[in-house]
Amino acid sequence: MSYTIAVEEALAQLGQFDAILDVRSPGEFAEDHIPGAENWPVLDDEERRIVGTLYKQDPLEARRLGATLVARNVARLLDERTGGRPKTWRPLVYCWRGGQRSLSLHWFLGQIGFRSRQLVGGYKAYRAQVRDDLTRWPERFDYRVLCGLTGCGKTRLLLALADEGAQVLDLEGLAAHRGSVLGALPDRDQPTQKGFDSALWARLHELDPTRPVFVESESRKIGRIALPAELLTALHRRGRPVWIDMPEAARVDLLLQDYAHFAADPEGFCQLLDGLVELRGRARVMAWQAQARSGAWPAVFGALMREHYDPGYAGSLRRHFPALAGVAPLTLADGHPETLRAAARQLIAG
Q1: In angstroms, rounded to a whole number, what is the distance separating the alpha carbons of residues 303 and 311?
Q2: To pair with 159 at 20 to 30 A between CA atoms, which of 7, 258, 298, 345?
């Protein structure tokens, strides 16, 4: 029986492993990792830096030091984290390239009697597979693309669809950003690009190509996260657009809810608006900033909708989704849960 496993086979059966052990340093793990992995670092960030620097000067001494540090850390990990595991425990172990770091922990786990498997090629092979899959998989799906102006409840409707059992691809949720200049979340940082790619890969892996997938229309970037070009192309070419409409007063109300955190930080809000000066002009941006500083939040969000977001979004959506011209709008009276549930059921029913 082989104690190594190729990346294609490993990713096809991720759910069959009892654990996925990433032995890279905490910094490497934080940037990205296989979905569901635990960090069992056999070198921490500083140890990795020291060994890497030394390797350029004296490879033999670097290997000796690295082996010493790895041995100590593996002993600690085995002592702290393997107690009580059954002999049938089957972890997948990987490092950067499937080299000495993962081999060290994998070998000891095997000697204990656990059914450990080492990932051939390590994280590097996984990352290559993710990039390849993200170029191919988007064409698999039948998309229902929720289109509409800012504040019309698309995200809330998407969540209502998920609650009603529909398949949903929540790109803004994966990117931890609402997709506009004001869209950073107050309590959550965006993932790295690689981290987003892994989360998207995992979600696409879960979706059933025989069922519709509901998704919001998005720009090329969500905050600092870039969407795969192949996904955008699939949404524009294959997606069936759904135009969501909502009265302006209700849209303003939803924006006030989504961006309520700015009431405690009007200067932060104004700094973000500075990014619109080139597009909308200094005088107009200063008028919006004055409204924010005076606490006139309904007025400023209404003005932003009418003067900034609506003109740009309406044209962009109709360019990317020409079929919208013949689509009857789905009108939401407001963003109340009952309204959204009824609309979700209507969309699911076709």
Answers
A1: 12
A2: 298
Question: Whole-model pTM?
Answer: 0.94
Q: Do residues 42 and 58 make contact, with C-beta atoms less than 8 angstroms apart?
A: no
For 200-216, write each residue's pLDDT tens digit: 999 999 999 999 999 99
Distance CA 2, CA 40 (A): 23
Q: Quote the DSSP letter at residue 34.
A: -
Among 95, 147, 152, 270, the one annotated catalytic: 95
* Residue entry with tokens 């076709």: 350
Answer for the pair 231, 134: CB distance below 8 angstroms, yes or no: yes
Q: Is 181 helix (H, G, I), strand (E, B) or coil?
A: coil
3-state percent breakdown (helix, strand, coil) of the chain, nearest 5? 60, 10, 30
Widest pairwise Cα distance in the chain: 72
- Dist. CA 260–CA 109, nearest whole Å: 51
Write down the mean pLDDT value for the chain.
96
Q: Is 95 among the catalytic positions?
A: yes
Judged by phi (left if over 0) then psi (alpha if -120 to 50, else beta), residue 162 lies in alpha
Are 164 and 344 within 8 A, CB to CB? yes
Q: 106-119 burial by CB neighbour count: b if 16+ within 10 A, else e? A: bebbeeeebbbbbb
